[in-house]
């Protein structure tokens, strides 16, 4: 699961770990993506005829406190399922953010 | 108290006064209800009007679904009370899973504001009881994300259970099966992209919306 630790923080009287997760939401295969198709037209117009498909999506970066990686992954997955994606149209993936950020 | 329809307003809703006006014209009392009020106990039915609830952030209807008022709307839907979502209200009802499927961006990526011919498919719903299957009516549409979609299993079940209420004669937005409006299995919850409240007086270009809203009012009066 793509979650990375960002140090420790003091929450509700004890130390928890701070995690950062990136949730990627993409349209499912077969769902029409007129925005992606329009961008593909522009990409081909630019001269990159080798490109076959452009898919558009959304990316969310969440910073949260949790006891361990599994707990953080559970929370992020629940949020992605319930709010960040619509299962009729979209698939989501929790993935790592490579840049280190601290606060 | 006389029967009352609650007209729910989220931040960004913009068709609530049209709905109140249209229902009033047809003799039905309607009251605007703020989304932050959890109570709809004084209402016999509810309309979710069009607009851009919560700025359409994330997806149209995605944030509105978590408003306080939604639990009351879910209760009313489950109790068999009439629930009508128009345009953005339809999007809210799908996000809240009171109706199956979802509304995606129009094929062709254009915002469409036009009058469309609709064929009545089922008159089993609270929005079509006074119409005849096969009848053609004209209503305005005004949307960017009105392209109804669902998986094949859901589509088959919509047909099997007579849940398609209206379909477009000339599909303007790419909707699967040219669907313009659907109901739940029971027929008391309807979502439709066209705006019946904008077609209740000849001076604004038609009165076919009266047949839709009168059907809804009849359902309210029949309890």
What's the gist of this structure?
The complex is a heterodimer of chains A (103) and B (223). By secondary structure, chain A is an alpha+beta fold.
Characterise the protein shown here:
The complex is a heterodimer of chains A (103) and B (223). Chain A has 103 residues and is of the alpha+beta class. Chain A has one domain: 2-Layer Sandwich (Mth169, Chain: A). Chain A has helices spanning 34-45, 69-84, and strands at residues 3-11, 14-27, 57-66, 90-95. In chain A, strands 1, 2, 3 and 4 form a four-stranded antiparallel sheet that branches. In chain A, a hairpin with a 2-residue loop joins β1 (3-11) and β2. Chain A is elongated, with a radius of gyration of 18 Å. Residues 97-103 of chain A have low confidence and may be disordered. With 223 residues, chain B is of the alpha/beta class. Chain B has one domain: 3-Layer(aba) Sandwich (Rossmann fold), CATH 3.40.50. Chain B is 23% helix and 26% strand. Chain B contains five helices and eleven strands. Chain B has helices at residues 16-25, 69-78, 88-95, 152-160, 208-221; strands at residues 4-9, 29-34, 45-48, 83-86, 102-104, 112-120, 136-143, 147-149, 164-168, 179-183, 189-192. A nine-stranded mixed sheet of chain B has the order 2-1-3-4-11-10-9-6-7, with helices on both faces. In chain B, β3 (45-48), α2 (69-78) and β4 form a beta-alpha-beta unit. The radius of gyration of chain B is 15 Å and the shape is globular. The relative contact order of chain B is 0.18. The model of chain B has no long low-confidence stretch (mean pLDDT 96). Chain A binds chain B through residues 31-32, 34-35, 38, 83-84, 86, 88-89, and chain B through 58-59, 62, 66, 94-95, 100-102, 104-109, 147, 149-151, 174.
